[in-house]
Amino acid sequence: MLDGFWDVGSLTAAPWIYVVVGVSVLLDVFVPVLPSGVLVITAATAAAAGSGAATGQVPDDVPDILALTLCAATASVLGDLVAYRLARRGGARLDRAIARSRRLRSAQERLGAALARGGGALVVLARFAPAGRSVVSLSAGATHRSTRDFLPWSALAGLTWAVYSVALGYLGAHWLGTTWLAAGVSVTALFGAGAAATYVMRRKPA
User: Which residues form a coiled coil (predicted)?
Assistant: First the structure.
């Protein structure tokens, strides 16, 4: 198992790994079933394998970890903006589609109230919830929320999610070794954060 991660770790030096991560993260706003979080964690665990994190050595490939974080965060924001812009220009057809979905209508109402209060933490929470990113980005565009209201929170959400996901993979390798067990524990922690975010978002506001 360890040898396998060392082999994968060497791949993080190849530029295409960032392209794969970036495309996956960007597209999962439209296809929420894409395992972009799992891919980011696996890439971070593999990078740790090449950096000596699992053996307690001083990491030599920290720039790889920083590049992976920046790549994931940037792709997350770009995906949000593309969905936001498409929804903003969607017109009556998108409005009718949202009107038929109780979940989307509820998300619209809560998002509007949260952004009006300056409480865009909902956008950050949604980044961790399954399909939450899609609902929030599309709802923000469909309700014609200004970019000035939406973009800063989208950037914070993307950076928070990227830092959390990369840290899970990297620290998991540091504590448990560069094994598939470490990756599995890290992925479980990511899913746990998603479940917690979903619970908080479903609670009725006071």
Answer: none
